[in-house]
Write a structure and sequence with these properties.
The chain is α+β, with helices and mostly antiparallel strands and 161 residues long. It has six helices and five strands. 38% of the residues lie in helices and 17% in strands. Strand 1 and strand 2 form a beta hairpin.
Amino acid sequence: MKHDISLNVNGEIYNISVESDTLLLDAIRNHLNLTGTKDGCRAGECGACTVIMDGKPVNSCMVLAVEAEGSVITTIEGLNNGEELHPIQKAFVEEGAVQCGFCTPGMVMSAKGLLDKNPSPNTKDIRKAIRGNVCRCTGYKKIEKAILHAAEMINEDKKLD
């Protein structure tokens, strides 16, 4: 059975028609053509599909699209400001925390969820925040360092405001 729903994604309202069992992941990728959110395990184990939903990181493969109606969703595409990368994205590049790039959008979104809640995390906080994200390329040291660096950049920007 099809459902007509409205999704608020990256500040835009999208009206789409989905089956009852359509995952938010598939709605984002296939209906909205936002392919930065990656399709990894479809079991909530890898974190590649992480988005921010109502201020919290969630695995979009574990949420039905119809359940997301009325929520505010941010994907990796919604972080940058035009051509300017978000400080978290900049930090990942600067610290070499990207290798193949498959896990990067989910890692960045998990980091965003953490830094929105805790602007000055320690390594233990970071490890807890990204524990649901799997990276097979970098290990996690560069990712942890990138998130610490992003926190510094964000906090410095706040001081300048």
